[in-house]
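Protocol step 4 of 6: structure prediction from sequence.
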Amino acid sequence: MENKYSRLSVDLSGRVAIVTGASRGIGKAVALALAENGAKVACVATSQERLVGTVEEIRALGAEAEPFACNVGVTAEVQSVVETVIEKWGKVDILVNNAGITRDTMLATMKDEDWDAVIQTNLRGVFLFTRACIVPMMQKRYGRIVNVSSVSGLIGNPGQANYSASKAGVIGFTNTVAREYAKRKITANVVAPGFISTDMTAVLNEMILTEAKKRIPLNRVGEPGDIADAVLFLASEAASYITGQVIPVDGGMTA
């Protein structure tokens, strides 16, 4: 039977995944794709209520999912999620760090709190979840870590000094994790989305969308499923010899 949520078909039977920012957009698409291919999925967002739709859709597939409310920038909350997942399912095989926020403004008018909030969620959150999962992965001698960055972390973007810095930091962090834990059969890679149709882009007017498309050689805005397919591949056995890589999924923007 053809998959509903992913265009790839991989075998993740018995695998346990944690996906942050799983309530909507890219995170929801990733969680559904992983579940559709056999993984048990711990869905993380700032509140459990926001995760109802994701969890219900996963369970409708006959797959297992649990919602977890968590501020990804708070050590104790992150540790609690990982410990609970291991207590319930015995391990963590796949970690997808997707949670992210924006506080866009030009550098001269950027407030301290705008900088701190974005770094806290987008970079510290990746560090905390990866650190919490790395020892359990080492013990099992298996792990797939996929961190969602952005083309803004590769080329920058006016008005996004905080966001671009956080996403560039994710890339450097991931490269180091890949080198540190390759011998333990743990891979760490980055997916860098370009202009993707999500709640954040839905509020943009038609003029901005038109200008954005002009920068995209494929002449279309990406969909969350485009990112989910890339993550799914990196989370699979087929990507066992890929680590420390950044894969832009951007329609050619950074080509």
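Step 5 (inspection) to follow. The beta strands are 16-20, 40-45, 65-69, 94-97, 143-148, 186-193, 246-249.
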